[in-house]
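User: Sequence recovery, please. Input:
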């Protein structure tokens, strides 16, 4: 016969932990350091936009270019491999 203990789930064990004064301080410090590093990286002079960038010239948009046979349907390949061998 089936074991009834396997059918019944045991309640999860919950640990009663005392609140710690240092809880989350290390992750908060790491997050703050990461934010500072991120701001330092993205705040570099090289990444800032120049108000007057004389060297940059915007390229003209050529529009969409299509091949002359774009509207034509492609021929469907034969799915019969024996025909391919005999044609060769």
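Assistant: Recovered sequence (88 residues):
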């Amino acid at each position: 016969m089936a074991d009834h203990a396997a059918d019944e789930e045991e309640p999860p064990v919950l640990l009663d932990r005392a609140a710690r004064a240092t809880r989350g301080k290390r992750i908060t410090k790491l997050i703050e350091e990461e934010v500072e590093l991120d701001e330092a990286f993205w705040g570099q002079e090289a990444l800032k936009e120049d108000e007057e960038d004389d060297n940059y010239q915007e390229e003209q948009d050529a529009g969409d270019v299509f091949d002359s046979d774009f509207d034509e349907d492609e021929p469907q390949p034969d799915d019969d491999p024996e025909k391919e061998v005999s044609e060769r």
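Residues 35 and 41 are 10 Å apart (CA to CA).
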